[in-house]
Design brief:
about 325 residues, alpha/beta
Length: about 325
């Protein structure tokens, strides 16, 4: 596995692992908790040194899973987690990034992750009721206390990133980014390039759609978050299939998988971009890691860009409620 450097010199594997789906959002898990621990440890064995979780996943149980799995190899892995939600009785009821809440979450996450320091602590969603300067300052205090190493932001606008970075250096920004989600390109990515901040795309495979495993006739299981996302409505999947077909055609020509092409496209954008595809299977970890060895020519990248631009994308990437939490 190749390595890449996010902001502030944080070195990670070129492809990380998003752990959320091991605990929620994609329907019944085909494996047990012990199986998921095995997947996480196998990922580290295969060179994945960047694992992403959050207190809200579960809530809480995903951090516990990651903590147990990675405790024996903690010194080999960069662990990212997140704060920023108001969680009541196991449900998210809004946002909360008050300084005292950030500190409470940090202490609880440290316990669940079985560690004495959080490598990368993201504000999960920007809280419009609280200045981001206060957020950055509080995380900066946690850095000074040795409880956190790096500050991150998730789904933040360029202006918010600048304001936070002026108070405490931002190491990474996490947002959805892939061949069919190009929102960060206009303002966020140029800002990160200017400020020397890394970028961590989540859902880099379009929540499975770009891999071809979710087709126009796929029945989404109960509890699968994609059933609530407009982009995955049957009519939108049909309209978006042409992009998937083009990715698959290129993959066949290169003797690789569609997932590897989609990840290689992301890796080709900037050397400070580190995608975190999620999976619950060791074979997918290996497949995703293999994307670092898939070269795309400038012509192939340009072709993918042109096709994506010509076809466009049908359907929003979130439902109305979650769109309301985006900092735009």
């Amino acid at each position: 596995m190749h390595g890449r450097t996010l902001g502030q010199g944080l070195r990670v594997s070129a492809v990380g692992l998003g752990a959320m789906g091991m605990s929620q959002s994609y329907g019944p898990n085909p494996g047990s908790r012990e199986d998921m621990i095995g997947v996480l440890r196998a990922a580290v064995d295969r060179g994945v040194t960047f694992v992403d979780t959050a207190e809200v996943y579960g809530p809480y149980v995903n951090e516990e899973l990651v903590g147990e799995a990675l405790e024996p190899v903690r010194d080999q892995v960069v662990v990212a987690t997140k704060f920023g939600w108001d969680i009541q009785d196991g449900r998210t009821v809004g946002l909360d990034s008050r300084p005292e809440q950030i500190r409470r979450v940090a202490e609880a996450s440290l316990r669940r992750l079985r560690t004495d320091v959080i490598d990368l602590f993201y504000q999960h969603r920007v809280d419009p009721d609280l200045p981001v300067e206060d957020v950055a300052g509080t995380v900066g205090e946690l850095v000074a206390e040795g409880k956190v190493r790096h500050l991150g932001l998730s789904e933040a606008s360029a202006g918010t990133i600048r304001r936070a970075h002026a108070v405490h250096p931002v190491t990474a920004v996490q947002s959805e980014y892939s061949l069919w989600t190009r929102d960060p390109e206009a303002e966020v990515l140029p800002t990160l390039a200017e400020l020397g901040i890394g970028f961590v795309p989540f859902s880099p495979l379009g929540k499975g759609f770009l891999t071809g495993t979710v087709g126009t006739t796929t029945e989404l299981a109960p509890g699968d978050i994609r059933a609530t996302i407009p982009r995955f409505a049957a009519e939108n999947r049909a309209a978006n299939q042409a992009l998937v077909d083009h990715v698959a055609h290129l993959a066949r020509a290169k003797g690789v998988t569609p997932a590897q092409v989609a990840l290689a496209w992301l890796l080709a954008q900037q050397p400070w971009i580190v995608p975190i595809p999620g999976t619950r299977r060791i074979e997918r970890v290996e497949e995703n890691a293999g994307a670092t060895a898939v070269p795309l020519s400038a012509d192939e990248v340009a072709d993918l860009d042109a096709v994506a631009a010509r076809l466009g994308v049908h359907g929003e990437r979130y439902g109305e409620q979650h769109l309301g939490y985006l900092d735009r």
